[in-house]
Design goal:
This protein is of the alpha/beta class. The protein has 2 domains: 1-130 and 265-299, no CATH class; 198-263 and 302-393, no CATH class. The protein is 42% helix and 11% strand. The chain has 15 helices and 8 strands. The strands form 2 sheets. Strands 4-3-2-1-7-8 form a 6-stranded mixed sheet, with helices on one face. Strands 5-6 form a two-stranded parallel sheet. Helix 7 (178-187) runs parallel beside helix 8, helix 8 packs parallel to helix 13 and helix 13 (341-360) packs across helix 15. The radius of gyration is 22 Å and the shape is globular.
């Protein structure tokens, strides 16, 4: 059977398809920022035959993808653990044209001894991803007072999947806890990533100004924290990753924008199957998320830069956007939402400050070991970083 373990799988350079199976819409929590409509919560569970048909279709068809990542999603997928167990065991009893790996995204609160024993058995053939929103105060504010439940399961999860990042989500309630939460998770030696919810959490102009000031202060604390720990790297996209093209001339950036066609793999390297077997480009196009029917032929391509502020912004090619959320709010996958612009730029500024500090922390021998081209690129990038720190974005 053409299967590979996780370490080999993540090194694989060939294209892979992410096949997401929404096995249930039900959930045992009521997270404050959940984007799935509560009216749909008790409506639907995937059958074994639908799971079989979906997996068989994408494992057997000729589409250029030699690897398939099969992800169980919800709702809370552990509510239908028997279906997950049956599906995985059936899959491994078959022979396939492609290679595959399984994953599950869970809130981590429902793991039983039986589940742990089974997941441990399949630990080299699937990953268990989970959510934890930082320190107990922040997590319980957002995730239905479930911190103690997930914390009790952390040793098991870290033992079997130490490289699988946990997901931390920030909204307006937990912005004041960002630094405390990140430092807490680092002290737990947890691998994690995450950032702001997609939704507009800022409120009116006055409230947004206050929240952004708190956000900036929290990022400043983390700059100091990571500056003192050069072996650690801050979570993205909370700390917005600095674009590789930083420091290039404007014409080169404009050319890059002309060449950019899409930000994510929705509809290309991603497909989601809802509980009823209907196919969508990704889970953010589900009617249970958008509250309206999905477009028949969604176009996930950056054929233009809209709105105008995005067209004029040199950060646009690296600025996170969600085509499903764009469709939900604007009725068009290509018209970007912009309510997080200021927060994204604060993340870029924080990353600039940290990179400048770490550049100055380089030992002379480390710098001397760089090639001439590497030194020139570092110098040009540092000039761009200093310009951003001094003059803003």
């Amino acid at each position: 059977m053409p299967l590979i373990d996780f370490k080999e799988y993540v090194r694989e350079e060939l294209k892979r398809l992410t096949l997401t199976l929404v096995v249930t819409r039900k959930c045992n929590l009521k997270c404050s920022y959940c984007y799935e409509k509560t009216s749909e919560r008790n409506n639907g569970q995937m059958t074994f035959s639908i799971a079989q048909d979906a997996i068989t279709h994408y494992m057997e068809r000729d589409d250029g993808h030699e690897n398939v990542s099969i992800e169980f999603f919800g709702g809370e997928p552990l509510l239908v653990f028997p279906l997950i167990k049956k599906t995985v065991e059936w899959f491994h009893s078959q022979s396939w044209k492609k290679r595959a790996y399984f994953g599950i995204q869970t809130n981590g609160t429902l793991l039983t001894a039986e589940m742990k024993e089974w997941f441990a058995k399949y630990a080299r053939k699937m990953t268990v991803g989970f959510s934890i929103d930082g320190c107990k105060e922040a997590h319980d504010l957002n995730r239905d007072n479930s911190y103690d439940l997930i914390f009790a399961n952390l040793p098991f999860l870290q033992k079997h999947w130490p490289h699988q990042p946990a997901k931390i989500t920030v909204n307006d309630k937990t912005i004041p806890y960002i630094a405390q939460s990140v430092i807490h998770l680092e002290n737990l030696n947890l691998n994690f990533n995450g950032g702001l919810v997609l939704e507009n959490i800022w409120g009116d102009a006055e409230r947004k100004k206050k929240l952004l000031e708190i956000y900036e202060d929290q990022l400043a604390i983390l700059v100091d924290f990571y500056a003192q720990r050069p072996r650690l790297f801050p979570p993205s996209p909370l700390f917005a990753e600095l674009p590789e093209y930083l420091g290039r001339p404007t014409p080169e950036i404009e050319q890059l924008k002309n060449e950019s066609c899409r930000f994510c793999g929705a509809g290309y390297e991603m497909v989601t199957i809802d509980v009823d077997g209907v196919h969508y480009p990704c889970h953010r196009f589900l009617p249970s998320c958008t509250g309206k029917p999905a477009p028949k032929n969604p176009v996930n391509r950056q054929t233009r830069w809209e709105p105008e502020k995005c067209a004029k912004c040199n950060l646009s090619p690296s600025c996170p956007t969600c085509v499903g959320f764009n469709f939900q709010l604007n009725g068009d996958t290509g018209i970007r939402t912009t309510h997080h612009c200021e927060a994204f730029k604060l993340g870029i500024l924080a990353s600039c400050k940290l990179e400048a500090i770490r550049f100055n922390q380089m030992k002379e021998c480390e710098f001397a070991a760089l090639s001439a081209d590497e030194k020139n690129n570092r110098g040009r990038r540092l000039d761009a970083i200093i310009n951003i720190i001094e003059n803003g974005l």
